[in-house]
Design a protein that fits this description.
Blueprint: H1 2-18, H2 28-56, H3 58-70, H4 81-94, E1 98-102, E2 109-114, E3 121-127, E4 147-149, E5 152-154, H5 162-178, E6 185-191, H6 201-207, H7 209-212, E7 216-219, E8 223-224, E9 227-231, E10 233-234, E11 236-245, E12 251-252, H8 262-271, H9 294-301, H10 308-315, H11 329-335, E13 340-346, E14 356-357, E15 360-369, H12 375-388, E16 395-402, E17 405-406, H13 412-425, E18 430-432, H14 441-447, E19 452-454, E20 470-472, H15 473-491
Parallel strand pairs: 3-6, 3-7, 7-19, 9-18
Antiparallel strand pairs: 1-2, 2-6, 4-5, 5-20, 8-9, 10-17, 11-15, 11-16, 12-14, 13-15
Helix pairs in contact: 2-5, 2-15, 3-5, 5-15, 13-15
Length: 493
Amino acid sequence: MADSIYGNDGASYLHGLINYKFPAGTHPVQSQRRAKESFAMNAAGDLDAVFRHIDDHADEIVSDLQELCRQPSVSTVHTGIEEMAVLVRRRLERAGLEAEAHPTEGHPIVTGRLAGAGAKTLLFYNHYDVQPPEPIGEWASPPFEARIVDGHVIARGATDNKGNIMSRLAAFEAFLAVRGELPCSIKYIIEGEEEIGSTSLLPFIEANKDLLAADGCIWEDTFREDVPVLSLGNKGLCYLELTCRTANVDFHSSQAQIYENAAWRLTWALASMKGADEKVLVEGFYDDVAPLTEKEEELVRRMKPYDTEARKKKFELRRIALDLSDEELPRRHLTNPSFNIAGLDAGYTGEGVKTIVSGRARAKLDCRLVVDQDPEKIRGCVRRHLDQHGFEDIEVELLFQSLPAKSDPESDVVKACQAASRRACGEEAVINPFGTGSTPTWMIIRHLGIPLVGTGVGFITARTHSANENLKIDHLIEGAKYMAAICEAFGGS
């Protein structure tokens, strides 16, 4: 073939290339392999020094977390937001990053970047806003005092999400102190609207794709049972409000024989949409559910069984839905969409007795969607279902939506997190191929095209969104080492 394409001279030239012998030690593949081996050998010692630096500066790391927590930043009521954005920007600059606070239509978004030794770039995401602290009376100490109690920082935002911010900054600072540079380049985005829907995040991402371009992303998330959890995506959310109006007033219940009750009508409509077997009966609801890949099937099979008896005892559950076994529950929880009634409002629900026929009834539904399902399409399915079942009068409004997304479990950032878990925590990370909640991860995965892993500090006992939110100091320090190990592994991948 070489003769016919290149002629005899060309064939000889190609033959020479194919049979060329590289001088000893200069073969590019061998050189690259040796470089990686050398990197790994040097990294082991260097990383121990980075870990020691984190241990030696633990008191400073805790103090810095307390400073962040003492600044209220409640996005729901816009308390302390601008001040928090300034504080975060300055803290990034102190950690060595080039940082900027960007104005948006909503709350400022803070970005940072720092060039590292490796060719790869790792993007980190966090948020600086927090949930309201109410009910204040249930706190053991003031929610923005950041008091240390029994080795825990007690404060709103201690885990969600300021502890995660500090674990990352502490890792960056340790590398700079020990090595003078990071093993990979880093970029940082910290928003101020995560607790209220991240309204400004997607427009910012769309307008700043070059600024945020990276090879992988570390999202904020939590530990579980002393082992890091790697969440590779999120479920979508279709949040609907159904309103039934049968009259413009409520009637005396002596008229119940002749006036239609909106509460009953809405109840019948809701009953038509889901069976006692938990199957959703809305036509088209399951049409776009994507099948699992081989790797995803493997990861689901390896999931730790749920402890249903412990859950029943803790939450006083009557039973688990469908009486599924401990082994069956992880698959259903991770891979199935849901159709949930989040709230009902009709008639009189106050103390004592009031006899009325409801003229209006309302239900809020939240549907957690898996990959390839679309909130707008689900809204359309619900509308058609109601029309086809004689409930044309019931209004359907889409109040909020987010899209499902997932990352490749074989991507470099996932492998780096697995290696980091072994190195920093001495345990294999638990991999969730899909998160069970609905977060803005889809904006990164879908709009930046970046594989993403949700992982970070905190335990299920951290009481996020509740009174006495806390972060154990040991977990904060281990989390900083874990973040350092992720940077090291990703830089060498």
